[in-house]
Amino acid sequence: MNATGIGAAVRRKEDFRFVTGNGQYTDDVTRPGVTRAVFVRSPHARAKLRGIDISVARKMPGVAAVLTGAELTGDKIGNLICGWMIHSKDGSPMKMAPHPALASGTVNYVGDAVAVVIADTLAQGRDAAEKVKVDYEVLPAVTDPAEAKSGPQIHEVAPKNIIYEWSLGDQKAVDAAFASAKHVTRLDIINNRLAPNAIEPRAALAEYDAGTDQLTLWNTTQNPHVSRLVIAAFVGMAPEHKLRVIAPDVGGGFGSKIFIYPEEVVCLWAARKVHRPVKWVAERSESFLTDAHGRDHVTHAELALDGSGKIVALRAKTIANLGAYMSTFSSSVPTYLYGTLLSGQYDIPHIYCEVDAVYTNTVPVDAYRGAGRPEATFVVERLVEVAARQMGIEPPEIRKRNFIKAFPHQTPVIMAYDAGDYHASLRQAMEFADVKSFNKRKRESARNGKLRGLGFSTYIEACGIAPSQAVGSLGCGVGLWESAEVRVNPTGSVEVLTGTHAHGQGHETTFAQLVSERLGIPFENVSIVHGDTDKVQFGMGTYGSRSGAVGMSAVVKALDKIEAKAKKVAAYMLEAAEGDIEFKDGKFTVAGTDKSAPWGDVALNAYIAHKFAGADLEPGLKETSFYDPTNFTFPAGCHICEVEVDTETGKTEIVNWTAVDDFGTVVNPMIVEGQVHGGIAQGVGQALLEGVVYNKDGQLVTGSFMDYTMPRAHDLPLFHLGLTETKSPSNPLGIKGCGEAGAIAAPAAVINAITDAIGTEELSMPATAQAVWSALKRAHGVRQAA
Amino acid sequence: MPAVSMTVNGKSVAGDVEARTLLVQFLRENLRLTGTHVGCDTSQCGACVVHVDGIAAKSCTLLALQCEGAKITTIEGLAEPNGPLHPMQEAFREHHGLQCGFCTPGMIMSALDIVRRHGHELDERTIREQLDGNLCRCTGYHNIVKAIGAGARAMVKSGAPRQAAE
């Protein structure tokens, strides 16, 4: 292994600028004459817009413009779209309601933007925004997905607020298996709604160059090219070649910065109208109100087993809340990213899943770290754990009896798992977690008046998103390949342009490791370029743990072409046949001789072109590849959570966390561990602390960090991590992806541990101290709980 | 507009600001010191932590005018230009105590204040409790906790003062 190559825990290239305060996030960028945008937002969850009076605001100091939805429509700025078509089981297409960037006619959630003030300074903008008078006729609202179908109809296109009623699997076969099953486990599950809360709030800076009719957008986005495509082709802001989108340093995404939001559309439009740059930066309260939330499922799930604990069928019925409008990829999350993962790590012959997606008067819901897969894992892992307890089988044992053992494995819900060893990760995790001595620790806890519990989660996810033909056949509006361009400079240093985007994942380091390993050149001589549509030709961005499996594979393919071309150059230099040139450790050698040329000389010769004629070989050394994966990848593993519950307060302490994951090839173990840590923290947050609350009127009760509990350092333990490895056969590097695993595995592990401790399954997330105390009280009566 | 003057990272600075200008706005917009970040509007996230007269403060919760005559240190002032990183910065890099980097300046400034108050030998529990005012969404805090412990110890060896240089 090269010291900076694949598998080395290389320290990150990115960090110098971040630890010295030299990062360049969107809000750090400024342009001459910049103005600030301040949005006027609906304080009502549902209302008719009777009128907007901007006359006072317009005359306030420093105000350049006050713009409303009527003007937006007048300028023929199109609606935001959802790019994944889902059909209901009756064959009808999903009901996508119009989503204008500024509301006109009605507002449909608290935070829906109705107007924007463009002013010289932020303070002036805020002052003027307070003077915009909006006449609302307040209408009844619905926020609970379980009540959506009987609530007031939000959009004309969607009777009973139903977006689609989707199903997957063979219902008849599943019903038959249930009818003859020896044991059935049933659970009602609420997968709690989450606010993504990247610490960098969303932001946009738009600039218009009247001389060239060119628009530029600096934006907190995970996928600048997708953003440009949607804003050009669907919103109709400008032709694609007249719009440049730059995603500079982005301070965390977790899915929430995939989507195309109203604010960037409005900033672009306003910049062209006022002929000055326009910047908007969300306040945290705006983030809570307007960032697409995650999860929000209501599910009834059932597991059928035979007398030996072998699973014979699974069925689930889910209502998924998609909020007031359909966000960019929202339709895919509770369908093809959820139903397709309901087989977990298990050989389940029959699965049937129904998902009803509904509109409510809440902010749109879309992908949040894991996106559908945490919801699926929670259903499967809770069912399996509860079934084990009900049947008197040890939780690891029931898993072993049902694990898939042979690959490839075709599940009844589309996915074909290509590689894995689920016994290996379970076995290693049980050793690390010292499960053998758990009962001793439980007795010690009991002596201290505490309840101790152990929770397993053997999760699977589908990552490496995704083969374009496959997702196309499922309704996705785009292909999910990735591009790479490798530019070799005459001095031999290398720039890699990738269509993926890093917002914490460290691509500048890991992608450089790949190049260093492959070309045998110093890691320092490689730069990674991403996040600018003027530099990178096209790319699909970063989400779904795809950058390694898909993005790095594109780099590999481009490097193959680079090597082939460089060998031709070397052959001319060394006066040998091309087929005799070998390339190893940064050196081109004529096979069987001591004639060689180092990498740098070959790079130089490719450009000076003195050794070959242009008719025989083109000068230069630059290659491009578009890589489309052959399958999803299937990272999997076992997380074990051990908790202690204080019976007097209901407070849960996580006393031990073990995670053994199989991510295939690991490029940088330090970065991979960091991804797992962060994922677990978000999963623990969901399980113990976080939950978005809207009241009946549609007011967001959890609208700040004072009300919405984010995991803090003292809420979490140190994590004990391990890796097993089965390489993915579906990409050249064998990578499976690691970005979402923790968030997928953790919630079930935590809830399985707490319910093990407290002896009742009646516990919803977030399992706050109050919730756990109440569950204890309900299950065992006040005396025992107190 | 009222005038304000203070010392920032050892340099005297002055400006005319609206009375309601926050310290963080003065640093970011007037002085273009954009390493100090704003992550919330309720003093909860700590991305904006700087040192005011040697003590950690959330610069989103101070008016610039309150800092008249004060000595302010921001993340940009920790290491000499072109010099080595401060041991705490180096520890965050070495221990992968950051991912997206947005919370990092505030984390490092808070970490130095933890050292000022609790010394160089910090146990895990102390670090976790003392980080109550800083949110990170990327790291799960695991490596931040390690980085702060290591950085605090490294400050002894390097002779870096407990209190950041002005």
Question: What's the helix-strand series of chain B?
Answer: EEHEEEHHHH
CATH topology of the largest domain in chain B: Ubiquitin-like (UB roll)
Number of strands of chain A: 28
The CATH class label of the largest domain in chain B is Alpha Beta
Q: Helix tally of chain B?
A: 5
The CATH architecture of the largest domain in chain A is: 2-Layer Sandwich
Task: Walk across the major sheet of chain A and give the strand order.
Answer: 3-5-1-12-9-10-11
Average of per-residue pLDDT values of chain A? 97
Domains of chain A, number: 3
Query: SS-based structural class of chain B?
Result: alpha+beta
Q: From the 3D coordinates, which CATH architecture of the largest domain in chain B would you assign? A: Roll
Please report which band the strand proportion of chain A falls in: under 5%, 5-15%, 15-25%, 25-35%, 35-45% or over 45%. 15-25%
Main-sheet strand order of chain B equals 2-1-5-3-4
Whole-Å distance between the termini of chain B? 27 Å
The assigned structural class of chain A equals alpha+beta
Portion of residues in beta strands of chain B equals: 5-15%
Identify the CATH homologous superfamily of the largest domain in chain A.
Answer: Aldehyde oxidase/xanthine dehydrogenase, molybdopterin binding domain
The span between the termini of chain A is 58 Å
Give a brief description.
With 786 residues, chain A is of the alpha+beta class. In chain A, 28% of the residues lie in helices and 23% in strands. Chain B is an alpha+beta fold and 166 residues long.
Architecture overview:
The complex is a heterodimer of chains A (786) and B (166). With 786 residues, chain A is of the alpha+beta class. Chain A has 19 helices and 28 strands. Chain A is globular. The N and C termini of chain A lie far apart (58 Å). Chain B has 166 residues and is of the alpha+beta class. Chain B folds into 2 domains: 3-77, Ubiquitin-like (UB roll); 87-158, [2Fe-2S]-binding domain (DNA polymerase, domain 1). Helices cover 33% and strands 14% of the residues of chain B. Chain B contains 5 helices and 5 strands; from the N terminus they run ββαβββαααα. Chain B has helices spanning 23-30, 87-94, 104-118, 124-130, 142-158, and strands spanning 3-8, 11-16, 49-52, 55-58, 71-73. In chain B, α2 runs antiparallel to α5. The model of chain B has no long low-confidence stretch (mean pLDDT 95). Classes of the chains: A alpha+beta (786), B alpha+beta (166). At the A-B interface, α1 and α17 of A face α2, α3, α4 and α5 of B.
